[in-house]
Design brief:
The chain is α/β, with parallel strands linked by helices and 334 residues long. 36% of the residues lie in helices and 22% in strands. The chain is built from ten helices and 13 strands. β11, α7 and β12 form a beta-alpha-beta unit. The radius of gyration is 22 Å and the shape is globular.
Length: 334
């Protein structure tokens, strides 16, 4: 039915808007099946292929290769999101990822003559009526590992409605901040990755794309450089917590100082899409406690340490719940 097709397109539109801001590139055809190379292992008796609704590509900052994310886009109403609606697509994604890393058909369609690359999977669940109020992670906890046979060394991620809303809010906030010139153009921005002891960063620490690991993590850190005479630079630090306790903010401040994000002229805007009403006041208390507990461990004076902390500010962000009209989508021409 046309209505069903239009509803399915909602997840496609939302994912396109979100991941373009996070530096992902769509590659190859959409809504395409490609040959399974493990027919017996994957129990492919009738349908001898795997589907990809869309494949995204980004460059990994640590491993110097491109990552291809074969994606299953789902647009569900509130009452249809349950364990079964999640378990089966995840299993299908797991076996598809195993094949994608071996399949010449997948490579012909999506891989750009890369010498080093890998394929991973993502289930993207958009709640098109906006009424889903359950904990999506509880459904994932009910799924046994044997139900999702992810190949060794690969992984499959499930992004539920709350995470979609969180990422959508970040994407809209970044675009809005650029629109009012608080952030520079995308070419002057990148996502921050710390140097790790065991891994050498093959590219600079600020790169155009956020990895799927970062997107699924507790925070996403956007670095910006202003090439104008103002010379402003700093970070937008998005955090998915609620900011209900000083311990939460102490944890964030530990990260900021451990990786020395606060250079001499840097500003950090800590932004909470899901923050509680009192989060700003709790953050101010956390900063004072942090200064009291740790200033003497560094080489700065108390005033210098306090001034550095003052360059970390709190900003609540209005959460975005995006809804589409299936009629309007049906009237939209590509």
């Amino acid at each position: 039915m046309p209505e069903t097709t239009n509803i399915a397109r909602m997840a496609d539109l939302v994912s396109k808007e979100i991941f373009s801001v996070f530096g992902w590139e769509r590659v190859g055809p959409t809504n395409t099946d490609w040959e399974c190379v493990e027919l017996e292992k994957h129990h492919k008796k009738t349908t001898k292929s795997h589907p990809s609704d869309v494949v995204f590509r980004y460059s990994h900052p640590y491993f110097a290769h491109n990552v291809y994310v074969t994606t299953d886009l789902k647009s569900y109403a509130r009452d249809t999101i349950d364990k079964n609606a999640v378990a089966r697509p995840l299993r299908e994604l797991a076996v598809a990822v195993e094949c994608a890393n071996k399949s010449q058909a997948f490579q012909r369609l999506y891989v750009d003559d890369d010498q080093n690359w890998e394929a991973i999977g993502m289930l993207f669940v958009y709640n098109h009526d906006g009424d889903f109020d359950k904990d999506f992670n509880l459904f994932l906890e009910e799924i046994q590992p044997s139900q999702v046979p992810v190949p060794k060394g690969k992984w499959v991620a499930a992004i539920g409605p709350a995470r979609v809303a969180y990422l959508n809010t970040i994407a809209h906030d970044i675009l809005a901040e650029r629109g009012r010139h608080a952030l520079p153009d995308a070419k002057m921005c990148g996502f921050y990755y710390p140097d790790l002891n065991q891994l050498r960063v093959y590219s600079q620490r600020v790169v155009p794309a956020a990895t799927l690991e970062m997107i699924m993590g507790p925070w996403q850190v956007l670095r910006y450089e202003d090439a104008s005479a103002r010379g402003k630079s700093g970070y937008y630090f998005y955090y998915d917590g609620k900011g209900e306790s000083t311990d939460e903010f102490q944890y964030v401040l530990d990260y900021i100082f451990k990786y020395q994000l606060l250079g001499d002229n840097d500003q950090i805007s800590l932004r909470l899409p899901f923050g509680v009403a009192e989060a700003s006041a709790i953050f101010d208390i956390a900063k004072k406690q942090y200064h009291h507990d740790y200033w003497h461990l560094g080489e700065e004076s108390p005033d210098e340490s306090k001034a550095r902390l003052e360059r970390v500010s709190f900003q609540s962000v209005t959460a975005i719940t995006q809804r589409f009209s299936d009629i309007e989508i049906g009237m939209t021409r590509e």
